[in-house]
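PROTOCOL LOG
Step 1. Enter all chains and additional molecules of the complex.
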Amino acid sequence: MRDLQDDDARSGAGYNFAYLDEQTKRMIRRALLKAVAIPGYQVPFASREMPMPYGWGTGGVQVTAACLTPDDTLKVIDQGADDTTNAVSIRRFFARMAGVATTERTTEATVIQTRHRVPETPLRDGQILVYQVPIPEPLRFLEPRETETRRMHALEEYGLMHVKLYEDIARHGHIATSYAYPVKVEGRYVMDPSPIPKFDNPKLETAALQLFGAGREQRIYAIPPHTRVVSLDFEDHPFEATKADAACALCGATDSYLDEVVTDDTGGRMFVCSDTDYCATRREASETGDSA
Amino acid sequence: MTGHPDIGIPADTAVPAPAPLLSVRGLGRRYGTRIGCTDVGFDLWPGEVMGIVGESGSGKSTLLNCLAGHLVPDAGEVIFDTRDRGPVDVLRLSEPERRMLGRTDWAFVHQNPRDGLRMGVSAGGNVGERLMAVGARHYGRIRETASDWLGRVEIAADRIDDRPRAFSGGMQQRLQIARNLVTGPRLVFMDEPTGGLDVSVQARLLDLLRGLVREMGLSALVVTHDLAVVRLLADRLMVMKDGRVVEAGLTDQVLDDPQHGYTQLLVSSVLQV
Amino acid sequence: MYVAVKGGERAIDNAHRWLAEERRGDAEVPELGVAQIREQMSLAVNRVMAEGSLYDPDLAALAIKQARGDLIEAIFLVRAYRTTLPRIGASEPVDTGAMACDRRISATFKDAPGGQVLGPTFDYTHRLLDFALAAEDVPPPEPAATAQASGTPMPRITATLGRDGLIQQEPASDETPTDMTRTPMEFPADRALRLQALARGDEGFVLGMAYSTQRGYGRNHPFVGELRIGTVAVEMELPELGFAVEIGEIVVTECETVNQFAGSRTEPAQFTRGYGLSFGQTERKAISMALVDRALRWQELGEEDTGAPAQDAEFVLAHADNIQATGFLEHIKLPHYVDFQSELELVRRLRREAEAAAGPARQEAAE
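Step 2. Run joint prediction.
Step 3. Record the structure below.
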């Protein structure tokens, strides 16, 4: 008879390093290797049921779990911040289940799990950026059928993607996609970079290894270091990495993606860096903005 | 204008081709034990329009779908004279090659425009899709071409951003034709192109089609049960019954002097109406 | 002055403490034991086992207690636990024909060898609140006569039809079915995979799909050929021994429907089948499953695709799992500041441009 009062689960002591069993990690690593070998291609993988809800980063968590070694230093961000609740929750999970060092410093981290942002500080060779992906299929909202979208990728039939962009311009005068902006990877696969703002798209070309995990949809894909990543556009409506036209009120940065903060109920608002580590680091280096 | 240099498709040359554009031999398709079509063979020459007539169930739609790659035939070959590789059996092409052909040199006009249009996409987007599918990446030029084509099928320029839902049946069918012809195909398959349209609307569409076919030097295969359509469009005619071709020849000859009993019946039944 | 929101860690800790307090409820009321849930909330336990894909009444009861009675949350707990368990091997297929039935009914034959056994069913209860149950310390009811006491064999009803060739045969296969918890779902999915997905699918979803077929969206004229609930032995072949030994017993519900007959001039008419099997006493689920299974077989049976949702395997299978569904649905509670900000900027820009464009036009109109 199982001892139902067993407390091991709480400390993580009864679980394998980084929660997943080694068999599962090997399966995920095989998928990762394939993903790296075919940049931008969505590799099906047997996603496990994780002790956190689907849609809350189970894909990213599995990829991170398969990549972590005891010597790694992990950073987890959500919306660019280390202190948002889901980032805290995932960081704690790995602190408990893998006992790895954690950090809020982009430069100190060897593995960074992220939801919706690419850190402002350029990543370097040897770092791994793991994205949480809700819907990996860039064609999904044009064609709901998986059988059909897989065929479209296989045959490189991406005309429909541009039809969508054409329709945007015809209706709004601009491409009306502002996040999860589709890219073409190494001239072959059209890929969803996860719901990062399009401001972050240029950062997809980096020295770091980028891995994307979609748990519920059972897909893994990757952008190896220094891979060509082109945001889809038209010659006469080129892609633009836009952000709010303001400087960070805390650190004064003009080159970082900004969150808009409502400060009162009479229309008062201010803009601050979405990347909390970037902002804090700048302030420590005593660059100050208007509000400090 | 029959080609689009800006998207890398060379304009049709006026040099008379020594070979047929499409050459079909021994084509057959069964549905279980039932014959869809069997032992069909013919040549289609550049610039020629061939009508395929017969009542429903005669195998004419099966034949068209086999030729266009929508159905896999059980037997036979379909040799198409490609621009870059010369004559090839399209049934032996890989799926990507066949699809590429389907969006460049070939076009398919469905009876129901809903099957051939994206109903949720604007008229301009519908026409532009084939251009974008073969690599056009200049919004302004795509729009210009789309606008030009809407004009050629007599759709007002200010309807370019409207969705086909808002169009009449005749307009939808003309839009489908524009969408198909924009990449300057050499071979057009048409399945009852004037099908569900009113008689007055049919006449206008036929007139438009005839103009485009002549002007662009298109080759076409037109499946219809309506002899008036072939009389107006087709140079030659094949009559099908029970999956077989029972008579073939020049349109006027077949219609004015039908040899086969079934053709005679077909022609006389029209005259009686 | 603005201070960046901090304190995510503290907020989470506080939420967990409050949750624990709410779970316990009024401390004056005695705490619910896991055994009480297992014994007295057994149909909830059965559902959690069926959709959690783990046959363990104690764990299911614990999960229900921990989840404050939220069954989807309880299923989630069981699933997350199940993933971590090592796979020792696979059992032999259970023989439901040899089931020790607590309940066994057929809607197609008035009587059949083995007879009809109602068993512990709500079917003919009048749904009147029983206020007597509100009193505590009600003495336990008298034991009921159980069906299997006689030990009568209960051959499958469909076997009777099968002998006369009246129903399609399901060819036996030694092929190892794909394990959907170890292999990513790929479409088109074969029947074994579809049945797995339905077996662990959300009862409400599968019920809704089944109901839609009855109302004409992919109609397949089902009769409950047989519904049986009871205990089956689980056997496993141990390599050391070279033969199968019984390793335990489980209660399952099995439903076989007899459906719309098929046939043509060349092939004699035959009834077709749908199949449902799930852990525990879960008959609503098993019947629903059989109807949806049957609807999904349209291709194999040469039927027409009427475009009904229940005929669309990709639609049904991709949306049947309540753990996937609830996770993705609820994730929209998570912060989306960044996406929203980028949309906000775009909408502002479009509005600015629209106003700028309208500006001169308005002036012209005024002139």
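Step 4. Note key features.
Residues 18 and 94 of chain A are 6 Å apart (CA to CA).
The two ends of chain A are 61 Å apart (CA to CA).
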